[in-house]
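Translate sequence into structure tokens.
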Amino acid sequence: MTRFVSAVPAMAAVDARFAQGARLVTLVGAPGVGKTRVAREWVGQAVTRPEGWRCFCACDLAGATSEADVVAGVFGALTQLLGNDGAADAASFEGLISACRGAGPLLLVFDNLGGAVAPAAAVVARLLARCPHAAVLATSRSRLRLGGEHCVRVDPLEPGPALELFLDRARCSGADVDDLRETRRAVDLIISHVDGLPLALELAAANAALLPLQVLARRLAVGTTGLHFPFRDWPQRHQRLEAAIGESWALLSGWERRALAQLAVFEGGFSFVAATAVIDLARAEGPAPDGADALAALIARSLVHTSPSPEASPAVPRCRVLRPIRDYVWAQDTLDDEAREEARVRHARFFVALAEAGSAGRGETPRHVGEVLSAERANLWAAHRFLEVNEPEQAARLALAGQAELLPLGPLQVDRTLLDSALECARRADDDLLRARVLRARGVDHCRNARVDAGLADLEEGLALAERAGDRRLIAVLSIDLGHHAVFCGDPARALGHEERAQRLCESSGEAELLAKASLILGDALGELGRLTEARAALERGVAAVAGRGSYVEIESLVWIAFVDLAEGRDDRAARHADDADLLATDLGIARLALLTKMAMGVVAAARGDVDAARAALGPMAQEAAATGHHDYAAYGEIWRAALATRDGGEDVAAALQRAERMAPKTDLRCQEVLAHIRRVATGDAPTADASVLPPAASSLFQRIARRVVGDVDVPEADSTEGSAGVIRVGQGGAFFQVGDGERVSLGRRRRLRAILQLLAERRVASPGTVVTAVELFEAAWPGASLADGSGINRVYVVLFHLRSLGLDDYIIRTRSGYVLAPRTEFVYVPG
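Result follows.
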């Protein structure tokens, strides 16, 4: 009698299967998902169509347990439909066949197969073989496993249809749900607690007139299996949620129950790998399969739901035990206390390992590492809660590794954040190194959120603990952090000591990535002190340490080299370095780095006076940064847009300044100083270059660039630009090169460098300005090798970096499609 809230995908799928000629379609799904209602609604619509079957017969087989029960149930329904009472002895398979043939084109609905799947499958197979004009639509929690069977899964309702169903049934019960301004949160929680399961929604809605929605939501948060309502016209199994789920539970073997009970420790879904790590059937009675086969069996019984992962790879299904089923299973005595504890331990340790593996690879491995961790937030959080009580060391490790995913879920308790909890756990574990690592994480988090004093205190305390423990790597990491935040706070001189110490430690231990990071911060600090030559040397040293790896520190260093180029007036080199960084960031696929390189390209274009290109880069970059939560980069983008508006007046300067000032607190002190300078220029209070108290030659890196962007200082004289050498000579076979009157640089036995230089030189002679692609360079230097492993282009980049460092930096030009050698410089190819 109630209105049907359509399960459109399932209805459409049944239509499509029968339209394609299927004779057996099975609706499968979890208990309480609405398979019977979907079948009845579909039949109701099919009856009105002029084509197809002339007779539809619905057979409720809920109590059937044998082939005889199935035959009797179908025969009774069919003879009643046809108006033929039939003889008692006609309730046989032959009698059923005779009745089906006499009915003409016929669709039989085998409903509620439950425990009769195997006998029903036997009857259906024989019936369809002997009645060519008959077809079957079955509803079951598992497929019949017959050849030619088409399965259509009925899923729980998505939030929109679930809300529609709940409100419709709540109104039927007399509940006042027309004004949801104060109760919408409670309704959303009710829908979430029952995982969109239609039977649970109907029972909850029936209780909505008896209990306030907020009270109902709180009760369901504790458990869902107690949901019930005594509808007089409903089957007994549908009046209580636990009865509907209990029917499926009763059909499980001992090992299936044990596996499902272990999977109940997961929250919010899980992967196949996680499930097999948690399932352990060694103590199950009788023979039992491995974890993967046990999971497959539970999926086949519709007790584990699968769906494409919304955050990780869509091609990899994600599993979930629906909340009502999970609550029911957890209330059973399948696992004793010891077995439950062991399952929780396996669950927690799996996610510690996953978080630590993801943390180690974050920024270096493919993006799906972070996406997988994001999909597991609820499980990471559940594991941390368990470990905090039982294994504090593991809890601290999990919080430390998974903080990027755990922190968005909120504080652990009312007045304690996750990292506070991790620090307490590390203290309880009496592990100084672990405490130092947690202090480092909390210190960085404090500094990022403008709690600088607290952050620096944590970093200093962590450094003292690392020194006491003698962990050279952690000492280097904390020194780098302290130097970085010194620059951030406007004290670059204090950063020098920290970064120089970190460099020494990294050199002695061979930590190339950390050495590059220390060199980056050192170059940044030197640039802020106006020591640009030293800054360039430090940055280039860092790039050399990680050249070709495509890491974030290499990309950031290239951006900072581009900024140094700008400050020194080397505009062409600045553009090339910014382009190099952008191409690497695109290959790496990390959004934050892409924003940084787009900002660099916009700033370079602005300093060179290319206003249109600058706007095209900075505007979208600032908008994308704001939309994706990278508020610091959004602030940088708005500050440089304000500088551009101040320069040419093409945009409302006041509005641009207002946007920048609103975002400025999210940046470091130097960018706020840049904004102050832009504001002075915009209001006419800025000193000219000649009268400046802090002349361009002595100002910091960013101040120099800001002066160029707003146009209140001339472009400085560059030491050299492309083409100033007069002539470039390259020996045959790439044996040597000579720039102008400089020394001849022999490449000797460095065959990779020679092969790439030779190809660039030959292309320069044959067709000046024609690009050589990276693939062509790879094939020249590594003939016969394959690019399939993905490292080939990086190898080319390393060789080109070495050629540039030997003296060709201004002459090997990178374009979007490849490389050219000295297109605007006189060139001589010297024969052997």
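Note: The domain at 727-830 is CATH 1.10.10.10 (Arc Repressor Mutant, subunit A).
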